[in-house]
Amino acid sequence: MRRYDYDLLTIGAGSGGVRASRLAGAAGARVAVAEDRQLGGTCVNLGCIPKKLLVYAAHLREDLEDAAGYGWSVPPASFDWPALIANKDRELARLALIYGRLLGDAGVDVIDGRARVVDPHTVEVAGRSITAERILIATGGWPDLPDLPGVELAITSNEAFHLKTLPRRVAVVGAGYIGVEFAGIFHGLGARTTLLGRGRGLLRGFDDDLRVFLAEQLAEKGLDLRFHAPVRAIERLGDDLRVDYGDGQHLLVDAVLLATGRRPNTAGLGLTEAGVALTERGAVVVDDHFCSSVPSIFAIGDVTDQLALTPVAIVHGAAFAQRHFGAPAAPLPDLTLAPTAVFSQPPLAAVGLSEHDARRQYGAVHVYQSAFRPLKNTLSGRRERTFMKLIVDPVSDRVLGVHMVGVDAPEIIQSLAVALRCGATKAQFDGTLALHPTAAEEFVTMRHRRAPTDADR
After folding, report:
1. Distance between CA atoms of 109 and 115, rounded to whole angstroms?
2. Could you list the pLDDT tens digit for every one of the 457 residues in the chain?
3. Between the chain's N and C termini, which has fewer beta carbons within 10 Å?
4. Catalytic residue selected from 187, 289, 316, 436
């Protein structure tokens, strides 16, 4: 007689939860997934995919403008926000069906409803008690809202994907990757957009040269960037929203988007009551095998508050399924070499160490960098520039970091992440034949090292 209803019950059908459940089911385990929203989780429905589709839409305005320099006569264009959102929703619905089919093909039951852990082996979903030998928490992250007056008047990235109309004036609060990406989307689609950052610049944690260069490019495009501008309050004034920030300054806008960070999505799951240890931010504390403080309860992905990237959640899910259910081996990659991208306009991408972190670990480093106007912009007349940077260990000659701002940066950096994973040296970069004419060739033709700084002496 079976002791439990399932061998594995996964709470959350996002990238990590689906991967773990599919592989465990395919390996012969009895598996169910509980999800109270759309299949696919944040990435498919409220993150990576819809965000990238909106970035494409925003960038098309520049493509239309550039066409004239290449001899194309383009009639005056108009933009239809409802059409974009409807087309986006149709694509997401298609992806959700694919996720459902993948789970079904692996023999995984999908249970619709909000789950709550009752005890180490029991979960309640929509009034129904379900037991499982192992419970996997894969509920991802959720927007973290600041404590300020009028916060209820603002939206987050969640709601931005479902706006009925495109606001004419938008204040984006937050200078992290979500804030920078949505500021670019709204600006590119024609809204008068102001980005308010409480710190000294964009994208804390990325290489400083990239941060400065990207800010210059965004300002050149007309995006209003205001730093050292913490938001104090939001209030309704007739049809307007007033945003008070800094020391007595304010803006009048139609919408305020709060991009002030994300936190693990564990509220209301009953984890603390079940004995699961959480951090102050609500993350599930796990060991190297994804096990929580309760031996039968595990967690993967963003809910553990580690590196919040979809591919990380996916490899977590595969490794969990392999360890506990004998699914095909899935070795965890070196996350210190995880490539990252910000789909700003122009995009930013990097792999490896920033200059600051490289100096902290290695002392003196060699730095190679280049800034140039891409070939495409010579005929279009666009002023946008590209920036590239290599960080090299002078002792081993190994490339420690590769950084780029410019068109196709994420595509280029993805390939170079393989080179860093293999321990490529600057000499090997130099010995690689350039593919001309491309922007990427600049990474193998940089020969002149930047003048040493005091930190190198």
Report:
1. 14
2. 579 999 999 999 999 999 999 999 999 999 999 999 999 999 999 999 999 999 999 999 999 999 999 999 988 899 999 999 999 999 999 999 999 999 999 999 999 999 999 999 999 998 899 999 999 999 999 999 999 999 999 999 999 999 999 999 999 999 999 999 999 999 999 999 999 999 999 999 999 999 999 999 999 999 999 999 999 999 999 999 999 999 999 999 999 999 999 999 999 999 999 999 999 999 999 999 999 999 999 999 999 998 899 999 999 999 999 999 998 876 677 788 999 999 999 999 999 999 999 999 999 999 999 999 999 999 999 999 999 999 999 999 999 999 999 999 999 999 999 999 999 999 999 999 999 999 999 999 999 899 877 666 5
3. N
4. 436
Is 366 a residue of the active site? no
Q: Give 89's strand partners.
A: none
Hey, what are 187's tokens? Answer: 């600006």
Q: Domains, the chain, ranges and CATH? A: 6-143+263-325 (3.50.50.60), 151-260 (3.50.50.60), 346-456 (3.30.390.30)
